[in-house]
Amino acid sequence: MKKSIILTVLLAMVTVAMTAARFAAASFKWSETVHDFGRIPQGKPVTVKFAFTNSGDEPLIIKNATGSCGCTNVAYPKEPIQPGQSGEVQATFNAEAVGTFTKTVSVESNAAEGLTILTFKGEVMK
Fold first, then answer.
1. C-alpha closest to that of 81 among 10, 7, 29, 19
2. Are the CB atoms for 125 and 98 separated by under 8 Å?
3. pLDDT digit string (tens) for 18-39?
4. What is the rounded distance in angstroms from the CA atom of residue 23 to the CA atom of residue 97?
5. Membrane spanning segments where (predicted)?
6. CB atoms within 10 A of CB 84
7. From CA 126, how far away is CA 123, in angstroms rounded?
């Protein structure tokens, strides 16, 4: 009887520990995920900085960040962002074509949220 009680308590403790470990993760807290440039001049690149904080309890590692087209260059931190620390994903758009645009940056990381899509838009004027 005592053995079964001890075994049950130990099993419960292991289950709780495994559950807690599973929920420990990195997490993004973005200042914004959509940016509107408004009207911008044709042929003049514009840059947006998407600021974030690691609001999780594990180091945040950005594996890759890519623009939706060749007209967008993306820069992102290559080093792990520790819990509570901040960083930014920077997207520079080369506005060649006149008209409205909506572009995205896909951010792959170890964050609990999985893939994050950042969006910027505006209108290129002649």
1. 29
2. yes
3. 444 456 799 999 999 999 999 9
4. 45
5. none
6. 10
7. 10
Question: Six-digit token pair at 54?
Answer: 């690691």
Residue 118: strand pairing partners: 105
The listed CATH number (2.60.40.10, 3.40.50.300, 2.60.260.20, 2.60.40.150) that belongs to domain 26-125: 2.60.40.10
Confidence of residue 87 (pLDDT cuts 50, 70, 90): very high
The structural domains of the chain, with segments of one domain joined by +, span 26-125
Q: Which residue has the tokens 């929920």?
A: 23
Which residues are CB-contacts of 90 (< 8 A; sequence separation ≥ 6)? 47, 48, 49, 50, 74, 75, 76
Q: Under 8 Å CB-to-CB from 104, ≥6 apart: which residues? A: 67, 68, 117, 118, 119, 120
